[in-house]
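Hi R.,

Here are the chain sequences for the assembly we discussed:
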Amino acid sequence: MPVFKDGLPCNRDAHEDLIRKLRELLPPEAVLTDKEDLRPFECDGLSVYRRLPLVVVLPETIAQVQAIMRFCHALQVPVVARGAGTGLSGGALPLSDGVLLSLAKFKRILHIDPENAMATLQPGVRNLAISDAAAAYGLYYAPDPSSQIACTIGGNVAENSGGVHCLKYGLTVHNILMLKVVTMEGELLTIGAETLDSPGYDLLALMAGSEGMLAVIVEVTVKLLAKPERAQVLLAAFDDVYKAGEAVGAIIAAGIIPAGLEMMDKVAIHASEDYAHAGYPRDAEAILLCELDGTNAEVSEHIMKVREILHQGGATEVRTAANEAERQLFWKGRKSAFPAVGRISPDYYCMDGTIPRRQLPHVLRQISLWSEEYGLPVANVFHAGDGNLHPLILFDANKEGELVRTEEFGQRILQLCVEVGGSITGEHGVGMEKINQMCIQFKAPELIQFHAVKAAFDPAGLLNPGKAVPTLQRCAEFGAMHVHHGQLPHAELERF
Amino acid sequence: MLERDISETLQQQVHNAVVNGAPLKIEGGNSKTFLGRETHGEILDVSGHRGIVEHDPRELVLTARSGTPLKEIEAALAEAGQMLAFEPPHFGDNATLGGTIACGLSGPRRPFCGSARDFVLGCKLLNGKGEILRFGGQVIKNVAGYDVSRLMVGAYGTLGVLLEISLKVLPRPAASHTLIQECTQAEAISKMSRLLSQPMPVDAACYHAGHCYVRLSGSEQAVKHAHEHLGGEVIEKSEPFWHALREHHLPFFGSANPLYRVMVKPAVPPLEIAGEWLLDWGGAQRWLVSDEPVAVIRERVATVGGHVTQFRGSENNGEIFQPLAAPVLVIHQRLKASFDPHGIFNRGRIYANL
Ligand SMILES: Cc1cc2nc3c(=O)[nH]c(=O)nc-3n(C[C@H](O)[C@H](O)[C@H](O)COP(=O)(O)OP(=O)(O)OC[C@H]3O[C@@H](n4cnc5c(N)ncnc54)[C@H](O)[C@@H]3O)c2cc1C
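And here is the predicted structure of the full complex:
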């Protein structure tokens, strides 16, 4: 289990003072300090990292958030924002001398504007609730992370979350218009606009994926899309993972952009099938799920084409969902892949690297070699259309040394992703988890630039400190700087 | 096709500028100098830094040096049956990729397919300390670090010199038809706004000179069906119309009065501001030719939550872009200082104090 060192020395008097002041700002039930009350906030979806915060606050108005922030800024107390806590990189991991600011009470849908196809939401609104509310107008919110029943729109913006439909419809950054945010200094800013663009720098792009490091999101305006007339999904089975990978490229080369294009390997197929009974072929080495959407006519035309491509690519079987229920079932198998794998192994570690698609065979081969070397099985779930891998490493944290080996294995996978031209994270964020791997992907001047971007929003460095961007000191300790430079670069520079 | 990497020369020029405290004016094809505020300084000519670095059609990604002519990129994509889906305006024969991205310009497809910024995946950047930095990458999904590459889009070169840009590209639609219908501006607005909540293969919609134009794109079948559903006359060979709209070649844009770009929510009813109107982006981007003072226009547009750019024909040292709220401006200034601490790049191009 990782060990944490906190920034500020523990100071009891200061802490009591802080809590008393917070109670003046907020109603009693909105300030939690008892251990049992703090427990649910000790970790996010990456539960190997745990830590109790000093205090949890649950404001319900923007003015309260501003007051909390101003006050923490004045006292130099760090703040970590939290949505639903489904994040998979430890982004919402609390600080033991800091305030955990939960947006859980901000769960109202403020406005749905069907004429302009947009919706304004409080940050704690659940992702799926948006599409549910928009359905009455024939509209929906496109990004659909598998965690969509639980995760919040605020968390989605902070992580720039994707979903199985992001190849065609984009990530969160492509589907938001405007944010209201509160800075660490307590200033309320409007970023973006209800119009398709806004004057000045594109701060909206910076906020997307900022992992709660730049400002607290207190309102989100999203774009809604017309529900396609028809969506149809094809399931193709392959006796070879690499053939499945090739077929992905062939579909795209034919000029078709599927709404979703997902791949699962044998281990994942079996786990999902046992859990969701989606009817996946158990004898396949890999399956592809290819969703086509659009007008009726277009979908029919594309289904024909894609079927042909899949057969030519060596698919042993191609099924078209017979009806909407079967389509939902095919997706259920995929969307429940994580919990399904959770049932077959005491623990699993979900990786989130991205690669250029053509590198897929090479990367999968290497992963399976390492899997043997480490004696740790891997289930591969893959947003194949956009090159986002989710190898799930199966392990048992109770077995001596397995977590350490798992982390080492994971680290090698991410390093490989960077080497072949990809990234250490496609959608889950860096958080606490991949902070060392940032030293592999970025050079010192780039990291310095990131710190400067943070400082532009949060000069005091009090918002979610220590996450997402490593200090140069940390990289030096991690020993990865030499990957780029042979020696520690910029020895003359201040270490963050 | 010319291929040349002159990043070292550019880097040297930036170093010199820092040493001499002399500002630089970044120039690609010089096609968009008319946009934004006037800026002074020694010219940093990026047009020699050119060539497509990588384009693998199966990956849907293209990487090119910033000085590469836009038409060269479009030709290479067309050969692979692909396109830049944000349909960028060139505003001149020499338009480069770098200028297009720095100005963040998108054409008629924008409301339906996304903007220039939406398609940027990564960039190589020369900052104001003369350092070459890389952000983002050549993969479609990447959330490692802040999204600095998209921050560059629309920053008009005030944060750094774009050296290389990676973009997501898309297949060209198999078929495309344009429907035209006579109507009033108000009718066009409600017709276009209804399209937003209908699952139609629309990829452009505008209102011009008493007519609403809707472009349908997609598979043959989809386009045919949508046409039957929506009705209206088909214009044969509509390509030149959309091209002229995108490039501001329609006679509307030739007026002697200043041209304003008015951004509003698409369903906002016709605005009562004296002048001529042309509505693009399904009503979300409205072009206004008017001799009303800009303050009057901005005040009126602000009441419906919109903003206004003085696009052409205004004094080029005034408030060309909508002024920012004070706390947002502070963040802009800090960001500028962090990328360009000596303030050498395109001083004042978007706001006087940036
Ligand atoms: C089973 C499972 C499946 C998943 N599938 C996907 C998937 O398909 N795609 C995907 O992208 N992700 C997926 N995730 C990851 C996770 O659901 C997303 O990252 C999600 O966006 C997190 O939202 P949240 O509300 O839970 O945020 P949290 O976990 O609470 O917080 C995440 C980060 O955002 C910050 N934050 C939260 N709210 C705010 C706010 N209002 N203002 C500022 N910062 C804030 C936090 O500080 C933290 O850094 C999955 C997770 C699980 C457990």
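Chain A touches chain B through 96 residues (CB under 8 Å). The pocket of flavin-adenine dinucleotide is lined by residues A 44-45, 80-88, 91-92, 103, 123, 145-147, 151-152, 154-156, 158-159, 161-163, 211-212, 216-217, 338, 427-428, 464 (CB under 6 Å).

Let me know if anything looks off.

Best,
T.
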